[in-house]
Write a structure and sequence with these properties.
This protein has 255 residues and is α/β, with parallel strands linked by helices. The chain is 42% helix and 18% strand. Strands 3-4-2-1-5-9-10-8 form an eight-stranded mixed β-sheet, with helices on both faces. It has a two-stranded antiparallel sheet with strand order 6-7. α7 runs parallel beside α9. The two termini are 19 Å apart. About 3% of the residues have low confidence.
Length: 255
Amino acid sequence: MRIVIKVGTSTLTHGTGNLNIKRTGDLSRVLSDLKNAGYEIILVSSGAIGMGVGKLGLREKPKDIPTKQAAAAVGQCELMDTYDRLFRDYNHTVAQILLTKSDFSHEDRHQNFSNTIERLLELGVLPIINENDTIATEEIKVGDNDTLSALVAVSVKADLLLILSDVGGLYTADPHKDGAAKLIREVHGITDEIRALAGGKGSTLGTGGMITKLHAAEICNEAGCDMILMNGENPEKMYGVLAGKEETYTRFYAK
């Protein structure tokens, strides 16, 4: 089973922008174990700008493009160094791939990306993908890693896209603000009613929100790939989700 797993900035870092060491370590251990069990894992990881903010000692996510790109350049080094060390402890090799929107729309570059992913998986390598924030401009950027992960899942013909977020799935209201919000376990098609449930932007260090996750589900579902949205606070719950035993998540079913 080939799975694309997307992890967001809010899952990887504390509100300060500094790395959440325990959670990132738990994530690496679980993904390594899933690889050992025979799953083909592709990780789409946010966190470069957020970690750059922490590394540079900035008080908040920068608003101007040059500082954002500088933070991404610093943070991407920190992010990959962390993953390399953590996965090496479980005898797994990682590879970095940085993409922009044009890498999906340009036929030759898209084919090169697909070929590289296939070869990396054949070699037993765990590819780690992020947007190339250091060079991305409005014209060539995907803009958020929820959408990027969906494009990757479709490109590599994944069986499942699994998004780890700071919410446990799609709710009838924002669970951070409404204690009576109820989890929607299954979604069969992104309707106007479903879109109306999406709020605004996510965390202060991230770029997404529920609306980008619904867009990702649409991309995947149209291509025949299911998507699961779950809380990434405890990576070990992925075992139960993949085994069909965990109940706190939303599954968006392919057409």
